[in-house]
């Protein structure tokens, strides 16, 4: 215990909230005040970090303040009188929270409002917020202990859906800074909302685990956010840390984030976790939607990834079984000179979970609602794979990878795109050993091949001249992604091996977008190919020399005539 007897008379002591009501009745105790933080007066470090335009040091300057965007925050209650969020947060009449655990719970208002107030401040706070013009609607689904129920969250989503039907607002973001065990029902409700043109952004969770095991972060239609620390590495605090894996879409800052404290109307505090990270992305998303208000959830995610900082996370800081599938991207605000809109051709890679190890076991990767699959590839750690194929189920394309003989499991990697402005179809060869050719006036955006024998060899170079086709080796099926539009043009770019490296890369130039990625080798040692950002990555093994083949596409400049 620390005592004070000079400037004032008092003492500092750690005390449970359960005994606070008794302590305040002690003789000679006039009042009790909780210890709080004080801060140097500068732009919070996290806001400086997400700015890509660094030339105006000490100034938080954005393309816009997100004022056209409404955010529904499903959280605890919020202290709306805080100077950071006063007149920026509206408390709805919805409330669905369970009773607090324990015999005696000290329902101190500042504790009940703590989480929601901090998150609202990160989204649109006057000095700590990312998008300071965005309006926030508070929907209470968590109690004073930060606990809620799946049924309460479902009721909250139902309330928002009903509100949007009676008073349509667009653009709108639904922010979900909570995580529970896997729930098929909660995932289905989130998916239905996205399909009705609502953006849902969720925290990945703080369990240092696979995000695919939890909800709503495991729902593919939800934009799921992991957390990184000050050094842009996965957030880890003691035994807890950010969830990872292929269900995470992008990471954001979530360590020691300064925002509004519910202790008083002018108090601030720091908190850490994926809730803080997802609040950053909600703010960034508000800025992007303010620029392009008609963007769908799929288009918004592509824009978020386009503006993110890539290859900044040390792969060795991730669990070994999630290093390939976890996105190496940290969200950032768009540069003030950016002209990117929802109609631009943008693509991302979607990884499946790893297949079983038995021969010819399969695994599947799918695109989101509103995305088009422009190619499909596969990857195996030991190179034993039987290729990949594209199937259609319930009107949706699926990238299906097949494990090879003696394989340790295979991944499917779908190339999912928005802004293609094209009618696309996936064609397969008429029989094994024959290539697949696109119809006239179609562009070839990617090739795949599969073998029924359990081992696939590399196909020949795709054709991109007067004939646009995917060749096939003997005994194998080939698949071609063919898109029909007068504005799209595609071409091949390849890069051979250099030195002794088992990894070969080739990137599309600026203004071109990578839609397909293949690997060729002189032997049988290609472990597979996958796209990362605008780069095609090919891994070989056993001393084989590989070649990376990228299919690069773009919308033809208006002054350039068609080559058809």
Automatic annotation (TrEMBL):
Any one GO BP annotation for this protein: proteolysis
Superkingdom, natural source: Eukaryota
Major localisation: secreted
Residue numbers spanned by region Disordered: 430-461
InterPro entries: PCSK9_C1 (IPR041254), PCSK9_C3 (IPR041051), PCSK9_ProteinaseK-like (IPR034193), Peptidase_S8/S53_dom (IPR000209), Peptidase_S8/S53_dom_sf (IPR036852), Peptidase_S8_His-AS (IPR022398), Peptidase_S8_subtilisin-like (IPR050131), Peptidase_S8_subtilisin-rel (IPR015500)
Entries under PANTHER family matching the protein: PEPTIDASE S8, PROPROTEIN CONVERTASE SUBTILISIN_KEXIN TYPE 9
Protein name: Proprotein convertase subtilisin/kexin type 9-like
Organism annotation: Sinocyclocheilus rhinocerous
Taxonomic placement: Eukaryota, Metazoa, Chordata, Craniata, Vertebrata
């Amino acid at each position: 215990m620390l005592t004070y007897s000079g400037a004032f008379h008092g003492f500092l002591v750690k005390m449970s909230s359960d005994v606070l009501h008794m302590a305040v009745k002690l003789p000679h105790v006039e009042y009790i005040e909780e210890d709080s933080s004080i801060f140097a007066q500068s732009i919070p470090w996290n806001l400086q970090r997400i700015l890509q335009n660094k030339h105006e040091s000490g100034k938080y300057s954005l393309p816009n303040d997100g004022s056209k965007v409404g955010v529904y925050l499903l959280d605890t209650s919020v202290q709306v009188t805080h100077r950071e969020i006063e007149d920026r947060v509206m408390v709805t009449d919805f409330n669905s929270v369970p009773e607090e655990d324990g015999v005696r719970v000290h329902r101190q208002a500042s504790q009940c409002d703590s989480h929601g107030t901090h998150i609202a401040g990160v989204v649109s706070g006057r000095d700590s917020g990312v998008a300071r013009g965005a309006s926030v609607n508070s929907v209470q689904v968590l109690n004073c202990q930060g606990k809620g129920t799946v049924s309460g969250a479902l009721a909250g989503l139902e309330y928002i859906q009903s509100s949007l039907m009676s008073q349509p607002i667009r653009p709108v973001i639904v922010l979900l800074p909570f995580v529970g065990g896997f729930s098929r029902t909660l995932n289905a409700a989130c998916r239905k909302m996205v399909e009705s043109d609502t953006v849902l952004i969720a925290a990945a969770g703080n369990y240092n685990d696979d995000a695919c095991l939890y909800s709503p972060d495991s729902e593919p239609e939800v934009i799921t956010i992991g957390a990184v620390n000050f050094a842009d590495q996965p957030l880890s605090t003691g035994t807890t840390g950010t969830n990872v894996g292929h269900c995470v879409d992008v990471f954001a800052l979530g360590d020691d984030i300064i925002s509004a404290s519910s202790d008083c109307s002018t108090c601030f505090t720091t908190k850490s976790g994926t809730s803080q990270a997802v609040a950053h992305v909600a703010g960034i998303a508000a800025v992007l939607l303010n620029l392009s208000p008609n963007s769908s959830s799929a288009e918004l995610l592509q824009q978020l990834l386009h503006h993110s900082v890539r290859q900044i996370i040390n792969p060795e800081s991730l669990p070994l079984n999630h290093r390939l599938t976890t996105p190496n991207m940290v969200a950032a605000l768009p540069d003030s000179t950016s002209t990117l809109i929802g109609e631009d051709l943008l693509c991302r890679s979607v990884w499946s979970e790893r297949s079983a190890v038995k021969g010819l076991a399969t695994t599947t990767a799918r695109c989101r609602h509103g995305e088009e699959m422009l190619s499909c590839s596969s990857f195996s750690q030991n190179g034993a794979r039987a290729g990949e194929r594209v199937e259609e189920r319930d009107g949706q394309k699926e990238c299906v990878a097949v494990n090879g003989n003696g394989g340790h499991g295979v991944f499917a990697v779908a190339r999912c795109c928005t802004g293609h402005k094209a009618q696309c179809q996936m064609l397969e060869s008429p029989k094994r050993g024959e290539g697949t050719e696109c119809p006239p006036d179609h562009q070839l955006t990617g090739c795949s091949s599969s073998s029924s024998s359990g081992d696939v060899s590399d196909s020949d170079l795709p054709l991109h001249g007067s004939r646009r086709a995917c060749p096939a080796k003997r005994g194998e099926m080939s698949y071609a992604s063919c898109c029909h539009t007068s504005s799209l043009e595609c071409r091949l770019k390849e890069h051979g091996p250099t030195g002794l490296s088992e990894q070969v890369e080739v990137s599309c130039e600026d203004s071109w977008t990578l839609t397909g990625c293949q690997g060729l080798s002189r032997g049988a040692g290609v472990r597979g190919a996958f796209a990362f950002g605008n780069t095609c990555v090919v891994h070989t093994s056993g001393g084989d020399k590989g070649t990376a083949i990228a299919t690069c596409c773009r919308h033809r400049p208006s002054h350039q005539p068609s080559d058809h």
